[in-house]
Every structure is written in structure tokens, then in C-alpha cells.
Amino acid sequence: MTSTTEPAEPLSVEQLTATTLLRFATAGSVDDGKSTLVGRLLHDSKSILTDQLEAVEHASRNRGQDTPDLALLTDGLRAEREQGITIDVAYRYFATARRRFILADTPGHVQYTRNMVTGASTADLAVVLVDARNGVIEQTRRHAAVAALLRVPHVVLAVNKMDLVEYKESVFAAIAEEFTAYASELGVPEITAIPISALAGDNVVDASANMDWYGGPTVLEHLETVPVSHDLAHCHARLPVQYVIRPQTAEHPDYRGYAGQIAAGSFRVGESVTVLPSGRTTKVAGIDLLGKPVDIAWTPQSVTLLLEDNIDVSRGDLLVPSKDAPPTTQDVEATVCHVADEPLTVGHRVLLKHGTRTVKAIVKDIPSRLTLDDLSLHPHPGRLVANDIGRVKIRTAEPLPLDSYADSRRTGAFILIDPADGTTLTAGMVGESFAAPQPVKDESDDDGWDF
User: Fold this and answer.
1) Which has the least CB within 10 A, 9, 43, 358, 379?
2) If you average pLDDT over every residue of the chain, what do you get?
3) DSSP 323
4) How many Cβ atoms are within 10 Å of 158's Cβ, its own excluded?
5) Secondary element (H or E) of residue 58
6) CA angle at residue 211 from 205 to 217, to 5 degrees?
7) In a 10 Å sphere around its CB, with 0-12 CB exposed, 13-18 middle and 19+ buried, how is residue 362 labelled?
8) Residue 190: left if φ>0, alpha if ψ -120 to 50, beta else—which one?
């Protein structure tokens, strides 16, 4: 298979390794053009193959279209193509000479808000599309609120379909001002507004000749240059233990290593570490990376740590620097997005999975449900249904070392699981949301789960 247009110089392994990785998600209301934007981005950056383009051209002709419908590059489900909408999260991987990308194209329908939470939960940047003809609408505010809740550090407002409003600067300026004011109120740290036409290709990869009044970057230029923070000095180092390695062979009779992927920060040989939740302290005697010893390792490397003392460490434990250990608790207060069709209710018995540790838990209270349209709080709803976002109080059977989600998106997150069938019920973020409810007194409903 060959690409539609050969790049001037193919990327070498060294170039790809040297570039940084940006995870970003697209969001917006139905028919705002998310999938078309993604298709245009892939097409104009020469990131699709000839047979992929031929398949899209064939499908477009079957639908009576004269030009290729680039949205079909991401709308992969049959129901999506039939209805012309995005339902599931579509992931795409591509690279330029400056950066590698993982893109999550998320749905626009209200009933698929949970899918946007999935796609944006690990994103460094969110692209929120707005139809220039409609301006900021209810779903736009909803997606801005979700991005703020998930602490996405960068948000791009892509004002699409500028060709349908005669490329007027006044239309773009009014939409950008309204959205920026709303998102800033939510606490979004950085907002960049870009006027585009995904269908015509204006300001997606190439600068538009139709909007000479705009002097900012194109979408791809911004994606390639937006800073992605990898400052390890400001990360809380965390290693969830996934597996205990004990070969007990003649070559390695006493080897005992603790393997896992570093969730945040870095670890050094000789550093004092604490095992949580037990609280036992020791030092790092060695670090094995890809079968070779190293002096330092950092996120997101998968490593094996060797400890100086022979202490009890097992899967689900968390290794942290002794000087930077999070508190352990059995009482969890969090903002959650309910993703299952079955409602989450007060008294619900669940399994809580945090990192590599899974414990029994019970939902003690649901203090409020968040109305994303106006950010108002509905007090004590008693239950959360699919796509609801609310505050919960949970009691766990065992202590958990939890960071605030505001401090660490990796170790401040958890999921609630149905103990009967293993279904994921809820995605949770520890600590306060941008609209924290007033403290509510706990009301016990133990039902046999007394922790």
C-alpha cells in the first residue's frame, strides 16, 4: 500500500522517537463537522493510504456524492455511516515530522456524553467544534464543562463552516468571545480559537486565503507546537505493582522484583520508597528496564523495581517516594460520570478499581447531580443514570492511597465495577470538581457491608 502523496522525506525511526506524543480529542454537537475535520486533517497531512481513500471515494459515490466524504475515514461503524453521525469513540494514530498524535474522535449526541468522557480522559488537548451558523449552543457548553471536569490542560475552539457565513470575522469574534468567557469561568487554563472550514480545508492544515484577517496558527500548526508538559520534577512519582517476579532459578535464586508501569514521576536507585497501603519503608536497590539495569526510570516506562529489604509487596500495592506519599483512606469523595445503563444508587455495592488494586466498596451517598447546561446542582438525586455527572461518597473495605485528580489524572482516577458481571459502571475523579457541592452528612445504609 502506498500513500496518496509521497512525503518529501520519510520519517526515520530516530525522528519518530525524538518527537513528543500529543493525545487529543475532538468534540462538538451533531453535524458540527468533527469527523470531516479529522478526515481533512488526516488527508491533508498525508496520513492516509491509497486504498483507504479509494474505499471512501467508492462509498461516497454509492451515496450519490461527487466528492469524497472525508468523515467516512473515522465513522467506521455501519450505524455511523448509515446515520451520518459518530456513535463510538474512533481512535486514529498519525505522525508529522514534528510530533506523533493519538486522536480520539468522540460523539456529539447527548446520550453519548460517556463516550466523550472516555476519549478525553487521557487527552492533553480537546478540540471543541462549533458550527459558525449556530454559535455556542447547549452541547458546546456541555463539552466545555466535561473538558474542565477532566482537567484537560488545552482547549481549542474550532469555529467550523466559516464558508457558510461568508468568512466573516465578526461572526468568529462573537463566538470566540462567548465561548472563552464560559470556559474560563469553568477553570479551563488555556483556550485557543481558530476559524476553519473542514469541508474546504481552510485553516486545518493549510492557511486559508479566504480569512486574511486571521493571523493565528492552523489547527495542525497548533497541535504540533502546543506545549505538552513532561516536567518530572512536578509529578508525584507512583508505581502501581502489577506483578511480582520471582524466577527462583539457578541463575537468579534470590531475585524478587516488582513490575509495573510508572503512572507518574520518576524513580531512582537509592531512593527511599514506601509501600502503600501497608506503610512499610525501604530503598530502591535496582531498576530493570527492558532486561537491563538503569539508575533512573520515569513515566510511562514499564519497569521492575528491586528493593533493599525483603518486605511484603504484592499486586495492587503502590510504590511511592517516602517524602511524597499520598494519604490512605476508606472514605472517597469524588466527581463521577456514570457510564452504564443500570443506574448507580445510594447503597449500591460495587468494586472500586484504582490502579492495579480492586477492593469492595459501597456507595454511601450521592450528594448532587450536575446539570451541565447551566452548571447548577440538583441535590440528593438518589441515583445517577447513564451519562449523568455527579458527586458521590464511597466507603471502601480496605484503605486506598488516593491522589486528588487535580494533582494527578492517573492516580486520582478510578472506576466502579459491577461485582456480579464485571461491567464498568462509573468513571471517577477524586476530590473537588469545578462546582463542588456543599458538604452533606453521610447516611449509612450498610446492608451487610459494614466497613
Assistant:
1) 9
2) 83
3) G
4) 25
5) helix 50-62
6) 40
7) buried
8) beta
3-state DSSP call for residue 216? coil
d(C-alpha 296, C-alpha 265), whole Å:
11
Residues in a beta bridge with 318: 240, 276
- Asked if 49 and 56 touch (Cβ cutoff 8 Å), the reply is no
Side chain identity, residue 430: V
CA angle 71, 147, 142 (to 5 degrees): 75
Task: State in Å, rounded, how far the first CA of the chain is from the last one.
Answer: 59
List pLDDT tens digits, range 134-179: 999 888 888 888 888 888 999 999 999 999 999 999 999 999 999 9
Residue 116, pLDDT above cutoff 90: no
Among positive and negative, which fits the CA dihedral 196, 198, 203, 208? negative
H or E stretch covering 187: none
Which neighbouring-strand residues pair with 311? none
pTM over 0.70: yes
Task: Please identify which residue in the block is written with the cell numbers 492544515.
Answer: 205
Which of 145, 120, 95, 96 lies closest to 34 in space, CA to CA? 120
Among the listed residues 335, 350, 367, 336, the one whose alpha carbon sits nearest the alpha carbon of residue 421 = 350
Per the omega criterion (within 30 degrees of 0), is the bond before 277 cis? yes
Please, are residues 5 and 47 in contact by the beta-carbon 8 Å criterion? no
Question: Could you write out the DSSP letters of every residue in 219-246?
Answer: HHHHHHHS-----GGGS--BEE--EEE-
Cis peptide leading into residue 300 (ω within 30°): yes
* Joined grid coordinates for residue 399: 484503605
CA separation for the pair 7, 16 (Å, rounded): 15
Model pLDDT, residue 79: 40
Residue 247 has pLDDT above 90, yes or no: no
